[in-house]
Write a sequence for this structure.
C-alpha cells in the first residue's frame, strides 16, 4: 500500500501589534478627536486663484470708483425663518420682508434731496446656498420690493459667511468708495465659510472700506460679537417691531446719514485720517461796526 504524505494546513499569521502604553493611547485619541474647524476651506496658506497664482492681498474693484454709496442687503432664507416671529402669527421671513420694505422707503427721501448722489442697493438671500436677487446697482425701489415679495418659502441651511463674501464681491462691482453689508439672520452658520473669518478677511482686504452690520432676529446678538473687532456692529431684535426699529437705526440713522456729505469721495478710514490732519479753521471775529 502506498502511503501519501499528510496535508499540512498552514495557520494564518497573527498580526503583531506594538504595545502602546495606556496613557499614550489616551493622548492619541484626544488628539484625533479634536473639535472640527468651522471653516475647513480656510487655511493659513496663501489663497490662490484657479490658475494657481496668489490672490492679491487687497480687493481690486472691477472698474473705477468714485462718489456714492453701495449697500448689499443680505437676508436669511433658511428653514428656521418659517417659524412664527415672537408675538406674531406670521413666519419670520414675512415679518423680515415687510420690515426691509419699510426700511427702503427712507431711501426715497434721500434720493429726492440729492438726486445726483449715486445710491446703489442690492439684495442677496441665502439658505444652504446664496442667490443674488438684485445686483448692487442704482437704487430702484420697485425692483427691490418686487424681489422681496418674490422670495420663496424658507428651506435649507444657513450659509452666512458665503453670503457675506458674495455681497462683498457685488459691492466691488458697484463703482463707489463707500460700501456696506447689512445682514438679517435668525441663526448660526451651518454651511460654507465661517462668518467670523469672512468678516476678518473683508476688513483686512478692503482696508476697512466695507462696513458690516448685523441684525440678529430672534437670536442672541452676542453670537456675532466678533463684528466689533472689525469695526462692524451687531444689534438684536426679538420681534417684528424691534426689527423695524433696528433696521431704521442702522440704515437711515447710520448708513444714509454717513453719506449725506455729497462731496466726500474717500472711504471712512481715509477721510477720518484726513480730518485729523487738517487744522481747525479760525472762528471769524464778530462784526462790531454794526449798531
Amino acid at each position: 500500500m502506498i502511503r501519501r504524505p499528510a496535508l499540512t494546513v498552514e495557520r494564518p499569521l497573527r498580526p503583531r501589534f506594538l504595545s502602546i502604553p495606556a496613557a499614550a493611547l489616551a493622548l492619541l485619541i484626544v488628539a484625533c478627536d479634536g473639535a472640527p474647524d468651522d471653516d475647513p476651506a480656510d487655511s493659513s496658506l496663501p489663497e490662490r486663484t484657479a490658475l494657481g497664482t496668489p490672490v492679491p492681498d487687497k480687493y481690486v474693484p472691477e472698474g473705477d470708483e468714485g462718489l456714492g454709496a453701495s449697500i448689499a442687503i443680505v437676508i436669511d432664507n433658511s428653514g428656521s425663518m418659517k417659524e412664527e416671529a415672537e408675538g406674531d402669527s406670521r413666519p419670520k421671513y414675512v415679518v423680515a420682508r415687510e420690515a426691509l420694505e419699510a426700511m427702503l422707503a427712507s431711501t426715497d427721501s434721500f434720493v429726492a434731496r440729492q438726486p445726483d448722489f449715486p445710491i446703489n442697493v442690492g439684495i442677496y438671500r441665502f439658505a444652504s446656498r446664496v442667490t443674488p436677487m438684485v445686483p448692487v446697482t442704482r437704487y430702484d425701489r420697485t425692483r427691490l420690493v418686487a424681489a422681496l415679495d418674490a422670495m420663496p418659502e424658507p428651506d435649507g441651511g444657513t450659509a452666512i459667511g458665503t453670503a457675506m463674501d458674495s455681497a462683498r464681491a457685488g459691492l466691488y462691482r458697484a463703482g463707489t468708495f463707500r460700501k456696506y453689508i447689512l445682514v438679517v439672520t435668525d441663526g448660526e452658520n451651518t454651511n460654507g465659510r465661517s462668518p467670523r473669518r469672512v468678516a476678518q478677511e473683508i476688513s483686512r482686504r478692503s482696508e476697512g472700506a466695507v462696513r458690516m452690520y448685523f441684525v440678529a432676529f430672534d437670536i442672541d446678538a452676542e453670537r456675532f460679537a466678533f463684528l466689533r473687532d472689525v469695526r462692524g456692529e451687531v444689534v438684536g431684535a426679538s420681534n417684528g417691531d424691534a426689527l423695524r426699529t433696528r433696521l431704521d437705526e442702522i440704515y437711515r440713522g447710520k448708513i444714509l446719514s454717513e453719506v449725506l456729505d455729497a462731496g466726500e469721495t474717500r472711504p471712512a478710514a481715509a477721510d477720518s485720517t484726513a480730518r485729523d490732519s487738517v487744522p481747525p479753521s479760525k472762528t471769524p471775529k464778530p462784526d462790531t461796526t454794526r449798531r
In short: The CA atoms of residues 1 and 7 lie 18 Å apart. Confidence is low (pLDDT under 50) at residues 13-46, 265-291. Strands lie at 66-76, 119-126, 130-138, 176-185, 210-217, 233-237.
